[in-house]
Amino acid sequence: MTVGEYTAKFQELMKYWPHYQHGDGEEDLCAQFEHGLRPDIRAAVSVFQLTDLPTLLSKSRIFEANSRGKTVDTRGAGLAAKRSGSASASHRPESRGSSGPSTGQKPSILGRVFAMSGAEASHLEELIRGKCIIKGRLLDVLFDSGATHSFIFVDCVKSLGLYVTELSCNVVVTTPTDKLVVTSWVCLGCAVMVHGRKFEVNLICLPLSQLDVILGMDWLAANHVLLDCREKTLIFGATIAEVPRLMS
Q: Disordered: where is this region (predicted)?
């Protein structure tokens, strides 16, 4: 079913949901619409945390139109981009620095991180460092409530052989030094193990230093995880009865 066909069915069903016919139900309506999307489209648009239905619909259609031939993988010598059934030269998910907001012809969304290196993170008391596991490898992770999204070091993507997808927009990430980093590559639904719990996370590729992964507000909010910055612990939602563990 295409996004257009799904939208038509969704709009037909909306008349049976009075709550969603008012402006105050827009956020819930977006959540319902997103839940019914095809898994790959849902994973892509969930990165944007949209609460406006027309914008969500537009992003879904753009991703659907651009997704054919846009998915690449990093297994082998490099990232082989698959276009129209044929593989081109290897591609690497690169994030490029910028002194200004130029992002090419793609639309852009803004992101933010408080630290892009282990050295920066060590000087910020409100950040918590720990470990996570991706594909059996133990990685350094930063739990950052000031980061809008979750990120992964581009070299980890290649060494772990993770699939990456090119977004239909650029993500313009602001850093503590006011430098802009522009990227459009993401690992969708990446399996990440934290404290013995498995999560699926959309990890945007960034040139990190002395860090492998940043888990930001998108992950914290979606999984009801709180940060105790004083005790340097993670506190999971009330549905999980467990004493918080020391992370660092």
A: 74-107
